Amino acid sequence: MTQTTDFGFRTVDRESKASMVREVFDSVAPKYDVMNDLMSLGLHRAWKHAFVAAIGAGASDTLLDLAAGTGDVAFLAKKRGAGKVILADINAAMLTVGQGRALKKGLAEGLEFICCDAEKIPLPSGSVERVSMAFGLRNCTDKDAVLREGFRVLRPGGRMCVLEFSNLEIEALKPLYDTWSFKVLPAIGGRIAQDADSYQYLAESIRMFPDQPTLAGMMERAGFERVKWQNLSGGIVAIHSGWKF
């Protein structure tokens, strides 16, 4: 294993990335939900609705939502009938915002919060029916380890779903998308969240993330079967899923 990894377009020591990512999300946590709306022009809401529908967690299922952040996916899953949802995130500040939102929405019952690294999930093997991860895998140092952990904690017959920025497949839109990502987003981040650098990193991290076929192959190597993906918004994001049999 190499001793370095990517942090956006920079190369950093592997041991440093987790703390650097944590600092990014400590910084953006207070304005995270507002910035999501601005960054995606509101599309993230439709993407997350499609994602939760794909997860398909029912009343008898426990869903482990990795990189749960401020709780969007978890809250939608509860509203759609998930039995129990465990919100796990490496960033305590994000989870604190999520806990406050859960109380305001009256959704605290059936939720559990765990501050942990997705590469080392503190749950027994075969303990959940569904695992989800929305917009978090690209920030992890060892993405293969995260997928292996997702596979480990699933019961046989369980499914893992990953929603992540992916490879835009509409060539004509790529120049506009690049301008939005590298010029507009950092400017908005600087104005709204007083932190242009974090949003520059987030834009760069999207470009460094594996494309659709590569991520599908990573899931298969982790043990998942019947792996497939669904592009949304022309491939700006994609939902990948795989089963544990």
From TrEMBL:
GO molecular function: methyltransferase activity
UniProt cross-references to PANTHER family, sorted A to Z: 2-METHOXY-6-POLYPRENYL-1,4-BENZOQUINOL METHYLASE, MITOCHONDRIAL (PTHR43591:SF24), METHYLTRANSFERASE (PTHR43591)
Keywords from the named record: Menaquinone biosynthesis, Methyltransferase, S-adenosyl-L-methionine, Transferase, Ubiquinone biosynthesis
Gene3D superfamilies the UniProt entry points to: Vaccinia Virus protein VP39
E.C. no: 2.1.1.163, 2.1.1.201
Pathway per the UniProt entry: Quinol/quinone metabolism; menaquinone biosynthesis; menaquinol from 1,4-dihydroxy-2-naphthoate: step 2/2; Cofactor biosynthesis; ubiquinone biosynthesis
Function: Methyltransferase required for the conversion of demethylmenaquinol (DMKH2) to menaquinol (MKH2) and the conversion of 2-polyprenyl-6-methoxy-1,4-benzoquinol (DDMQH2) to 2-polyprenyl-3-methyl-6-methoxy-1,4-benzoquinol (DMQH2).
Catalytic activity: a 2-demethylmenaquinol + S-adenosyl-L-methionine = a menaquinol + S-adenosyl-L-homocysteine + H(+); a 2-methoxy-6-(all-trans-polyprenyl)benzene-1,4-diol + S-adenosyl-L-methionine = a 5-methoxy-2-methyl-3-(all-trans-polyprenyl)benzene-1,4-diol + S-adenosyl-L-homocysteine + H(+)
Gene Ontology terms describing biological process: methylation
Lineage top rank: taxon: Bacteria
Positions annotated to bind S-adenosyl-L-methionine: T70, D89, D117, A118
Family: Belongs to the class I-like SAM-binding methyltransferase superfamily. MenG/UbiE family.
Transferase recorded as keyword: yes
The protein, known as: Ubiquinone/menaquinone biosynthesis C-methyltransferase UbiE
Keyword Cytoplasm: no
InterPro entries: SAM-dependent_MTases_sf, UbiE/COQ5_MeTrFase, UbiE/COQ5_MeTrFase_CS
Top-rank EC class of the record's enzyme: transferase
